[in-house]
């Protein structure tokens, strides 16, 4: 009975916290900005010839991720499925036929508790996922730059009052964004370079050529640089850190199998994707941009929970 009473008290406190959160004018303004971002991002992609597809919520195949999270596994129908951590494999499958796609994709990543203090982690968030058939990394970097410039420009032009509320002044970013290799970033800033790089930057900046040990198995290696991937991460300026992550995808069966083994994973884990590769697939390239992180940057707010309706902060059961 004591445990039940404690649970009841926790539920009461969480409901009160949620209602207080939703009544905060700062949160209300940020949610409006997020609504504009969602609209303008999808406008841009449709105008660029991309087809929106529905998100996948649960599947026997999802992103393994390259950092510790709690396992969102569900046992049903005599087998195991997972709540979507990202749609990376579904993007790669769908784009073989649909060629240019995007998804406003819910992601669940049950982050460990220490991420609660970062100001930029939620365990449930929305990612604008983009993928294209037989496009290079450089072509998709250019698309992402255009998307960001377009979206920020429209908000500045059409909703400057929201930026004024946040005392936020954003420059007119121009492309191409600066580029630095992972190796050079390590040499200049050391381990954990993302934070000092972001604080020093005055525009979004790309980090490219990321080592395999820092990423999942599914991205493509340089043919002449073993262990170095044709990946790209975009870093927001002003200390807001990661904006986007992406790269060219591996499509050769032998490379996929080799990479799975190098990462200490098993073929059984990815049998669905391996079967697809056996049938034959071609190069695709894509990226994902976190909508809440995009909103946080545009508004210039410290805590990511202040830009969404029902924030899921790591380590806490929330409404």
Order of helices and strands: HHEEEEEHEEEHHEHHEEEEHHEH
Write down the overall geometry: globular
Helix content: 25-40%
Determine the N-to-C terminus distance: 23 Å
How much strand content do the residues show? Answer: 15-25%
Poorly predicted runs of 5 or more residues: none
- The computed structural class is alpha+beta
Roughly how many Å is the radius of gyration?
Answer: 20 Å
> What oligomeric state do these chains adopt?
single chain
β-strand number: 14
Question: Care to describe what's here?
Answer:
With 319 residues, this protein is of the alpha+beta class. The chain is built from 10 helices and 14 strands. The protein has helices spanning 2-23, 25-47, 88-98, 137-158, 160-165, 182-189, 194-200, 253-262, 271-279, 291-299; strands spanning 51-52, 58-59, 69-70, 73-76, 79-83, 100-108, 110-111, 124-133, 179-181, 205-211, 221-222, 225-236, 241-248, 284-290. A hairpin with a 4-residue loop joins strand 12 and strand 13 (241-248). Helix 2 packs across helix 4 (137-158) and helix 2 crosses helix 10. The longest helix is centred in the first third of the chain and has 23 residues, at 25-47.
Topology readout:
Layout: H1 2-23, H2 25-47, E1 51-52, E2 58-59, E3 69-70, E4 73-76, E5 79-83, H3 88-98, E6 100-108, E7 110-111, E8 124-133, H4 137-158, H5 160-165, E9 179-181, H6 182-189, H7 194-200, E10 205-211, E11 221-222, E12 225-236, E13 241-248, H8 253-262, H9 271-279, E14 284-290, H10 291-299
Parallel strand pairs: 1-6, 9-10
Antiparallel strand pairs: 2-5, 3-7, 4-5, 6-8, 8-14, 10-12, 11-12, 12-13, 13-14
Helix pairs in contact: 2-4, 2-10
